[in-house]
Structure formats: structure tokens, C-alpha cells
């Protein structure tokens, strides 16, 4: 159950494993533009203050929580630059005791299976934005440049490579200023 104070709002969910030492590991995530709560093809504005029942499915993930871990579901209205900002800055309200999180539970007697697909990659780890702070006007610019990283396709005589340049920018407090460029 959720309500917003604007006609357009989104919700971003992050399921994390919080280990006994306090470190948090991402497990999976989901997002929903709440104007598409009933239909992805026909958006319907929210009525500010009205409470809606929505179902949001997290992305599939093969993950086992270890003993001593805590499960944390973090909710936010935005997750820029991964999620494009709403045209205003909405406040979401979740009535307490009304929402549920349902996760699949693997039977206790199931043994781990052998993973037969070999992992092959010549690429570097997932790209990351360079750290940045807003300038005096509140403009924040995030950049991510991935240089070419050629690698051979296993079992063939084919070499692949790619590179990218990505820039995301926004002025704090002005969601309509968001821009994103990628080459």
C-alpha cells in the first residue's frame, strides 16, 4: 500500500543482505512508475493522498541468505541516474503494517547443484560512475568512461571489444533538468 503527494511518482526497491558485520550486499531490485500501476501501456495519474494497492515483482536472483544475515528492503522515490526522476519531488507514504514482502524459500534438504556453464570474460568489472559533488549552482555531473577491452570469444577465432562514454547530469532540486548522454 502506497500513496504519493503528486500525480506522478515512482518507487525503487532494493533488497539487500545485511551481514552480521554490518556490511550490506545488493541482492536484487525493482522499480515501478506508479502511474503504470494498472497498465504499462495506459498510464494513469495518481490522486494525491489516495492509498493504492500495488504489486511489485523483484528481479529474479539466485541467492541464499547466510545464517546471521538480516534482510533489508530499502524503498525510495528515486534512484538517479538509474531511474529517471519524476517531474516533481514526490513524498511517498506507506501505511505501517499494510505491506508485505514475500520471498521464495528453498527446501532445507536441497543440495547445491553443480554450475556447468563456465564463466568467461575478458571485460573489467561492472562500470562505475566517477565520484562527484554538486558545483556551487547545485549541478551534479556523473561520468563513466569505459575504455576498449578486447577479448576472445571462447571456442572461436573472434575478438570482441567495446567502449563507452556516459554522462548523467542534474541540478539538485530541479528534476526536469536531468540529462543523460551515452556514446
Concise synopsis of the structure shown:
The chain has strands spanning 3-4, 10-18, 24-33, 70-76, 92-93, 139-146, 151-152, 159-160, 164-171, 174-182. It is mainly beta and 183 residues long.
Describe the protein's architecture and organization.
The chain contains no helices and 10 strands. The chain is mainly β and 183 residues long. The chain has a 3-stranded antiparallel sheet with strand order 3-2-4, with no helix packed on it. It has a 3-stranded antiparallel sheet with strand order 6-9-10, with no helix packed on it.
Structural class: mainly beta
User: Approximately how much beta-strand content do the residues carry?
Assistant: 25-35%
* Mean pLDDT, all residues: 89
How many strands in all? 10
Largest sheet: 3 strands, antiparallel
Write down the oligomeric state: single chain
Radius of gyration: 21 Å
Shape: globular
Q: End-to-end span in angstroms?
A: 40 Å
Write the layout of secondary structure elements.
Layout: E1 3-4, E2 10-18, E3 24-33, E4 70-76, E5 92-93, E6 139-146, E7 151-152, E8 159-160, E9 164-171, E10 174-182
Antiparallel strand pairs: 1-5, 2-3, 2-4, 6-9, 7-8, 9-10
Keyphrases for this structure?
single chain, 183 residues, mainly beta, 3-stranded antiparallel β-sheet, 10 strands, 32% strand
Amino acid at each position: 500500500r502506497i500513496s504519493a503527494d503528486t500525480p506522478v511518482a515512482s518507487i525503487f526497491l532494493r533488497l539487500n543482505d545485511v551481514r552480521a558485520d554490518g556490511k550490506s550486499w545488493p541482492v536484487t531490485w525493482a522499480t515501478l512508475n506508479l502511474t503504470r500501476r494498472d497498465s504499462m501501456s495506459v498510464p494513469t495519474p495518481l490522486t494525491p493522498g489516495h492509498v493504492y494497492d500495488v504489486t511489485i515483482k523483484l528481479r529474479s536472483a539466485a541467492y541464499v541468505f547466510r545464517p546471521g544475515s538480516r534482510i533489508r528492503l530499502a524503498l525510495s522515490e528515486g534512484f538517479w541516474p538509474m531511474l529517471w526522476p519524476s517531474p516533481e519531488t514526490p513524498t511517498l507514504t506507506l501505511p505501517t503494517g499494510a505491506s508485505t514482502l514475500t520471498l521464495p524459500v528453498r527446501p532445507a534438504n536441497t543440495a547445491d547443484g553443480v554450475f556447468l556453464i563456465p564463466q568467461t570474460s575478458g571485460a573489467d568489472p561492472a562500470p562505475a560512475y566517477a565520484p562527484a559533488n554538486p558545483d556551487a549552482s547545485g549541478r551534479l555531473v556523473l561520468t563513466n568512461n569505459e575504455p576498449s577491452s578486447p577479448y576472445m570469444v571462447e571456442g572461436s577465432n573472434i575478438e570482441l571489444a567495446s567502449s563507452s562514454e556516459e554522462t548523467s547530469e542534474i541540478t539538485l532540486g530541479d528534476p526536469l533538468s536531468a540529462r543523460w548522454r551515452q556514446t
